[in-house]
């Protein structure tokens, strides 16, 4: 099918359209509510948020969101999610999840205030006993939705951590904007509040630096639990792992809100340094180790295809190291086609992880047809200028391009495929003059 035909029948096309409508409606509803002025029971008018305060708050909250966005995208390197998945996860947390949690928490808080109108008690109860479960459920819903649409997006724990972390980062971004804007508006309309910008900068330091790990870390737990369930053969683990991940996220969120509600700021900072940030460091190291293990899996599983004679022997070493893949992609600007090189690297990683899933028993015989497609696509990309291994390649000045091309025709680079890999199911042809295509060992 042509590209526009595939675009028309793709599930992700209609998912993107539905997401844009839902996210836009959610954000418009939320902004209309928070910008509306309210009248308290004693007749006092509580001003709503204004556009100037919102834009200033967005500029203060953006660095934290960009930091987490870069971190999660850098972790998701071996088999990166498609750009649309990143956008949907981030946008869902920033628009849909925040709006849903805002209205549910407000309704529950109103009900608690009716039962017990003690000043401040209902707000603490909502923050500790209601908000963690509601907010984590709203953020985690996008993880389950992506699994339903395309479970192959979750090929490892890293995939779950990235999608969950992006949803949490988006949620924190919008939540920070609202908190910062409320501080600005309150300081602008209330006399005797002191230096508003100094208080705002202090709030940005507390929420955007010291406790910025909160929402990404909590939702990351749910994502890892879902990834455990998807990649497991046990039916019990498929049910228990996602539920356990969600409950762990909610309990961590509850503990964090409880500590923030009952202790002072001077006591909170030592707890963050001694307890919270070491936990974040441990989780970060664990995710990094999982990413390194992905590289080993790629090397081992591509080696299976080398043994069967379907891929050249240089593939496992060339495609299992991020540093070598990055260098190859840069060198493809001079010695090949960068886009096709990038696609070949992602297709090779998908092929290796598919082989791992077939070997583990989580993908049935239907995966063999996908293997057939991937191997043929890799061969086609290699014939059309994709660079496989950039070792030994160097950039050159434009006026030396003709000489470089003449050398490359006489001395083929080991980074290019001289002979395309054989398709799955094709007849093996052995040649005594080319040992790479000899019988499998």
Short structural summary:
This protein is mainly alpha-helical and 441 residues long. It has helices at 3-9, 11-34, 51-75, 83-115, 121-149, 157-189, 196-210, 214-230, 235-262, 265-307, 315-319, 322-335, 338-360, 367-383, 401-410; strands spanning 38-39, 45-46.
Key structural traits:
441 residues, mainly alpha, two-stranded antiparallel sheet, 15 helices, 73% helix
Morphology: elongated
Low-pLDDT stretches:
406-433
Residue share in helix: over 70%
Tell me how many strands there are. Answer: 2
Largest pleated sheet: 2 strands, antiparallel
Radius of gyration: 26 Å
Structural class given helices, strands, pairing?
Answer: mainly alpha
Strand order of the main beta sheet, please?
1-2
Explained architecture:
The chain is about 75% helix and about 0% strand. By secondary structure, it is mainly α. It has a two-stranded antiparallel sheet. The radius of gyration is 26 Å and the shape is elongated. It starts with a helix and ends in a 31-residue tail after the last helix. Residues about 405-435 have low confidence and may be disordered.
